[in-house]
Amino acid sequence: MHAEALLVYQKETVAREMLYTEFMAVLDGVVSARSFAAQTMEAVYLQLDEQLNVDVMVFFRLPFDNEGRVADTWNLPLRDMAARARPGPVIKGRKTRLMCRSQCPEKWHSWLWEPRERNGRDPFADIWRVMRRNRLGLLPAHAAESEAEPPLITDGMEEAPDLQAELQRMKQREQQLSQHLRRLQTRLDSATNRVSELEASNQKLRDYIKVLKTEFIRRQSKTTHLE
């Protein structure tokens, strides 16, 4: 495995392409996906080889809560599922492995879905097309390709994006994640300060209650003596 990516579908199109690290940020709550709030999305986890060819596909469902965060009930071991994937379709002359609803006898069955045509396009050819477009800016390994291997670009496919443009997109993604982290840190600092304030108020209340109890005992004792 050289690289990992996710495709999230909305209706009949790919709504979002994510690096696996970006997905982990969503999964950990560092980043939210508000456009997916209160929905269960169909997604595909992909493992790619050194030349960015699709090697393994896991078709799974991804539920989001009202805040656009992955629901607490979701807990699929995607990498483990990919390791157990069965032989899949041949895409552009390359064998793949596949994990989907019809090929999963395990307990994950209910969280998986079956690949189907979207807008009249074969789902596997469509995944190949999206990954060859390479909007995520993935870089192949620097190993020499044999002449027998198919070229990166084939007839009818778009040219690979300019490397500088892709690097710029990656920098923008990094900046967005950094901004989210800074906002979360600000919220954490605010919550920490609030906790400190509440603890101080609670201590004052405890001290005041202690004074009242002492005064009550003193008055009760005085009343008993008078009787």
General description of the model:
The chain has two domains: 3-161, no CATH class; 162-227. It is built from four helices and six strands, in the order ββαββαββαα. The chain has helices at residues 20-27, 78-83, 123-133, 163-226; strands at residues 3-10, 13-19, 40-48, 54-63, 86-91, 94-99. It has a six-stranded mixed beta sheet with strand order 2-1-3-4-6-5.
Our count of domains comes out at: 2
What is the strand content?
A: 15-25%
Q: How many strands, which pairing sense, and closed or not: the largest β-sheet? A: 6 strands, mixed
Structural class: alpha+beta
Mean pLDDT: 82
Question: What keyword list fits this structure?
Answer:
single chain; 227 residues; alpha+beta; 2 domains; 6-stranded mixed β-sheet; 6 strands; 20% strand; elongated
